[in-house]
Amino acid sequence: MMTSFSGLHRFETHWRNLLTSLGLRDIEFWYPPGLGDGVIEAVRGEKRENIDARIRQPTYHTTDANYTLPNDQIEYARLEDQAAGLAEMMHNRFIHAPLNSPRLLIDVGCGTGTVSCQLGDTYPAAQVYGVDLSPVPPRPKPANVEYIVGDVRKLLNRDARLVSESADFVFSRLLMLGMTDWAGYVRDMASILRPGGWVEIQDFAVDCYLHGSCCSGEWEWLNALFLAAEKKGWDLRCGCNAKEYMQQAGLVDISVKEYRLPMGTWLVGERPETKRIGEHSAREYGMLYYFAIPKMLQGMGYTEEKIEQFRRMSGKDLAGQEGKEVYEQWKWDASSMNQVF
Hints:
The chain is an alpha/beta fold.
């Protein structure tokens, strides 16, 4: 099925939900390079299986930043689906900070530009800068949204758009596998704020829960990642530690909101808003770690055979199953801080 549509990015989620409700799968949005109509492509039938990782040849950020996930079209599609699932999980709230007539908003690690565009739509009088290591893939965007390519910490006070005490809001989501100095990052983001500005961090901890108890402590592959993270500076529990980083940075009025993120759809009966993100996590997170594990374990002394074993282990441990009687909980902290001088 193909149809043309006017290039209004704000309705992409609505189109996706509508087509999914009609039994259509593999939904793709194709945008024109400039003004004009775009195309939605979808097929009817069963949902396709994950692409065989052995034949996928992902690309990565061509910078010296220690980011471990791909930046190819398959990853962009995953990020779009994940963003839609997270929005549903959070009851269609994409941010939590109580902004009041903001003038400058910064979206760090903006990826495909989803949140940047939402910010631009919600606050049309504000300037929005989305910052990412790679160029944002082409998509329609509000006139008040502009993208900046580079490492936000290296650009701070070197790029005239990212200077101290200039922003009303700094947002980031899922920077766990790309940030190697969380305390320094939060401190830098706090320095960008005007008096009374807000920082919001949406991130998680990789610990997995079964019937309310942590079940991932015995996962050999995950313990190997924790050792690598300790050596290289990642924080695999950054969501849970965000509050402490914000306190260290001198931020005040700290609030934390926690969401349950199931692996699969077993929580839908109690919390129907988790359906899409549960489907996504069960389908995608094993593949996500499949590509992250080799890069995270570089220089840690593991053989190729051991890394392949870790890859297989992660896929098995992270697999979800429809109706499976488990209680797996991912910690998600959305922390909003008010800077007061």
